Amino acid sequence: MDPFVQSNLALWDAWASFHPDTEMYNMEAFRNGTSSLTPLEWGALKGRVEGRSLLHLQCHFGQDTLSFARAGAVATGVDFSAEAIRKAKALSAELNVPADFIQAEVSTLSLPATFDWVFTSYGVLTWLPDLMPWAQVVSRHLKPGGRFYIAEFHPAMMMFEFETGRYGYSYFNTGKPYEEVVSGSYADTGEGTLRKECTWSHSLAEIIRALMAAGLELKDFNEFPFSPYNCFPEMEEVQPGLFQCRHVPGAPHLFTLEMQKP
């Protein structure tokens, strides 16, 4: 495993140990039946995944995977963190919501099954040094006619430092990671432990062209000036459940992409 990815694995194992207890993940509501899917992705996928097989890449501790399963999908979640997968399996058993969970690094994943849908969302691509192997994994696990859906933070917004709005990061992938020490996590900055994270920039062209090179065809693309998560510094709620970075409110915050395997 790439040493930077190995460093991130230690980070995500640590985060998975306390994320289920954070306000952001709201486990009480989830246990009582509330879906963790946001209106953005569920608005696009409702009525299209029920009764279908769905592979969720980088599933963390399984909330979205189990939300799809509750909605009638035959769901499989994959994450490289052993701690995340352990918690996902325990949550599936606790709630009696059947889903498969597999520990694997997303860029080298090779399952015997193919799926009607491959799904991934929110803060997934920045942890990957190279999108070409990832895109091949997406394509390889889709049935002919199967669809890929991603909702992700927009790379244009990720150029800025949230605290100040100043330019801080390249829009393009330089091949070298940004190595930074962070306190706590996006879900709980007050947790306080200092840990290193390694992230990479990926432009929209890099993302789309990697998926096209893997044989997928573009079906839908959208950009949005808000985030459904208050997970970055200096964000303000501009509508109920929708947040903007106060220093760059005009920047695109999210994009969604749907592609199909011929």
TrEMBL record:
Keywords, alphabetical: Methyltransferase, Transferase
Gene3D superfamilies reported for this sequence: Vaccinia Virus protein VP39
CDD domains per the UniProt record, alphabetical: AdoMet_MTases
Lineage of origin: Bacteria, Pseudomonadati, Bacteroidota, Saprospiria, Saprospirales
This protein's record includes keyword tRNA-binding: no
UniProt record, GO biological process: methylation
Domain Methyltransferase: 55-146
UniProt superkingdom: Bacteria
Pfam families reported for this sequence: Methyltransf_25
Presence of keyword Methyltransferase: yes
GO MF entry, a single one: methyltransferase activity
SUPFAM superfamilies (UniProt xref): S-adenosyl-L-methionine-dependent methyltransferases
Protein known as: Methyltransferase domain-containing protein
InterPro entries per record: Methyltransf_25, SAM-dependent_MTases_sf
Origin species: Phaeodactylibacter luteus
